[in-house]
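#struct-help
A.M.: can someone run this one for me? Single chain, 265 residues.
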Amino acid sequence: MAYIEIENLKINYERKGTGDTKIIFLHGNSCSLRYFDKQFEDKKLLNSFELIRFDLPGHGLSDKAIDLDTYSLSGLAHIFTELYKKLKLDNAILFGNSLSGNVILEAIEDLQGVKGIVLVGSAPFGLPTTGEVFLPHPVLPLFFKGQLTDDEIKSISDTVFNYSESFDLLNSEIKKADPKFREIFLPNSEKIIPKNQIEVIKNIQIPIAVINGEDDEILNFDYLKAVPFNNLWENKMIFIPDTKHFPFIEKPDVFNQLLFDFCSQ
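D.P.: on it. Structure tokens below:
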């Protein structure tokens, strides 16, 4: 692990593996770079690619935001863009899970040398007539609640994971995350309007892999299937059985092979 300073914030990151192509992993709301441990332990990936992962501001071991506008899509996209430039990254595949898929789409027009995008548990914002991005799940408001009780954290875990052994990871990282992030993100989304990501998707020429857990209880697949993806990998969305919102944690062997195949093309 190492730190890099961006906008007076210390950002925790790790680089591991060898290869000209870089895979850059961004985690979701109240998660951390630890969610990608099973990719950073995969010898096939490490022997073929350089893997890079970050803790976003207010998450993991990175600093909490000084300016709370950082806790918005445009704020996180700005931090990621500065990270990308400061580390002189290129020849990159961008991996976005959940909220960070939207961060990538917010930032993509300002990044050079991106070869492809992997979206997992994520959908672009901007379709006015095809329903909501997320399903009306009773747990959903907890993702935007400041302080969470142990019972609420357990409810989140049961919703996003099929297997109870992942609870300890989720519990640990939620408790590290800045409660202000969850509390302020939606109000910031109304104040700091993000890009129309459907238009961004239409203009992207690089390949996009869309991979989801087949049992995801949060993402609205009907909405996702209406998105006009340009250059969709395999010409289809991929669904991994017996996994929910984090298929790369629950079925790492299956997921890592898909990731290897996409990044090797």
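A.M.: thanks! The chain is about 35% helix and 15% strand.
D.P.: also worth noting: The chain has a mean pLDDT of 95.
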